[in-house]
Amino acid sequence: MTLNLKTNRGFTLIELVVVIVILGILAATAAPKFINIKSDAVIANLNALEGSIKSANQLVYSKSIVQGELIGEGVIALGTLNIDTFYGTLKADSQNVVNAIDASFTVVSSPTDSFTTNWGIYKVPNAGVQIFPNGYDISSGCLLYYIEADADNSAFYSQTTNGC
Q: Does the pLDDT at position 2 exceed 70?
């Protein structure tokens, strides 16, 4: 029995390289559509920021109890800073929140202002504060919203991440 080598030929090296290059191009164009790392990172940062504000609020509330500042507006000393409170919780004022969590914020005067720090914070007139990451503005829908407590309930935290 004789073996004919011409009919039992495999792939050449060039053919294999061409197939690998084509698969690499397809993977490079398809992978970003399935893996949105930046969005996941921004959402994780918003979650961490919300946790930081909640922790600061627990500390502020504890100190408010000790100092008897649970009714209406008050002021407590947190380290070397004075923190404004409202019914024992962190008052939703831009600079007040920045002081309480000691983070890198830019207090903006307009919800569409640009800034160079990690976070922008905007005081909503007659409401709370909105905190949004660098590269986004409030209209993007990627933000953390905080409203201090009133006499009947606790502080309110809300995240909007659909624009991240």
A: no
